[in-house]
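R.M. (postdoc): so does anyone remember the format we settled on? I'll just put the structure tokens first.
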């Protein structure tokens, strides 16, 4: 095809799209650095300030802060007053960047870009051989996941998410709870602290994550929680729990359907299963209008699908989706299956089911 056959308008538009993509990809690294160094937290509390004042308030090197601030300015994140040479973080921007934003803070997600770069060579090889990339190739991923979910669990788990399953009263009375794929265990520890009469068990394949969980539990002096290295596909627990929870984990598993069968078997009759999953359809057609879809499919290649394939799994990926989840829960023998959303959380769907 020669250039004379190209649609000039379409060509120019896509050139602009690629330029924007590259600009934002590199800016995201600087957003991640700002999150890790506390720059946005300092700026959120400051009036318009020079790079020297920002550096002093943040305890950082001025030259690096000045160059970073220039990138943030041309990237539309900071406002700049040329005469005074001052920078300002608008409160509307701080609402998504500073730690005070809680679960609305999106700056920490920018760390995904840097983390993804560390596994790029393995992913290139996986494209050739299809073998996937194992969990151990992702440094600090447990810490990132813990930060990602931590503020959400702190703000919503006890007051909003658990009530979706109708189990709060029973948790207060004292039951047995299993959390699968608990990672750094923050959700388990939040629940254990809120419901001291209930006995909690968190399981995960990552000893690194479980050490973080145990450390946090010890710091909180929790006596009603324990953490175990377990593979959910080989759980082999029978009617041992009254509530089973799984947050943002089932789509990563080698065999989600098989895992849900194990979890259903672990429930006592009348027990409740609470599944938190990424809000997506199970088909590409169903996600064409989803504003999060580029992120979901990209992270699927980079992590979710790849770690499943590395376990000789089915590789469903991040967009395992509502339809697949509903079908798998029913196939596992669970009944009264419902999908529920939170008004202020467009990123997740929560599925509630019961063992008959």
């Amino acid at each position: 095809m020669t250039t004379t056959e190209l649609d000039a308008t379409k060509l120019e538009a896509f050139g602009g799209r690629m330029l924007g993509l590259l600009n934002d990809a590199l800016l995201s690294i600087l957003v991640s650095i700002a999150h890790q160094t506390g720059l946005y937290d300092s700026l959120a509390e400051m009036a318009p300030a020079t790079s020297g004042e920002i550096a002093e308030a943040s305890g950082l090197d001025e030259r690096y802060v000045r160059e970073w601030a220039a990138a943030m300015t041309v990237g539309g994140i900071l406002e700049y007053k040329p005469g005074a040479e001052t920078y300002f973080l608008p409160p509307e921007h701080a609402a998504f960047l500073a730690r005070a934003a809680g679960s609305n803070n999106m700056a920490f997600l920018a760390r995904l870009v840097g983390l993804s770069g560390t596994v790029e060579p393995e992913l290139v090889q996986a494209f050739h051989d299809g073998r996937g990339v194992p969990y151990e190739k992702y440094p600090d991923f447990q810490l990132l996941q813990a930060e990602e979910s931590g503020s959400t669990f702190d703000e919503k788990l006890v007051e909003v998410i658990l009530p979706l399953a109708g189990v709060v009263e029973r948790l207060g009375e004292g039951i047995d709870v299993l959390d699968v794929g608990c990672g750094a265990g923050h959700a388990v520890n939040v629940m254990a602290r809120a419901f001291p009469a209930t006995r909690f068990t968190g399981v995960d394949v990552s000893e690194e994550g479980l050490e973080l969980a145990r450390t946090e539990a010890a710091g909180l002096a929790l006596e009603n929680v324990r953490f175990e290295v377990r593979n959910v596909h080989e759980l082999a627990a029978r009617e041992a729990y009254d509530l089973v929870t799984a947050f943002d984990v089932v789509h990563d598993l080698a065999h989600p359907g098989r895992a849900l069968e194990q979890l259903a078997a672990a429930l006592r009759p009348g027990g409740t299963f609470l599944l938190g999953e990424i809000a997506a359809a199970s088909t590409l057609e169903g996600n064409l209008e989803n504003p999060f879809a580029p992120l979901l499919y990209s992270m699927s290649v980079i992590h979710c699908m790849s770690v499943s394939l590395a376990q000789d799994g089915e590789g469903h990926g991040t967009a395992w989706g509502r339809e697949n989840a509903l079908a798998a829960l029913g196939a596992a023998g669970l009944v009264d299956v419902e999908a529920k959303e939170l008004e202020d959380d467009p990123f997740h769907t929560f599925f509630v089911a019961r063992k008959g």
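R.M.: ...and that's the designed sequence above, right after the tokens. Also worth knowing: The mean pLDDT is 94. The CA atoms of residues 301 and 317 lie 7 Å apart.
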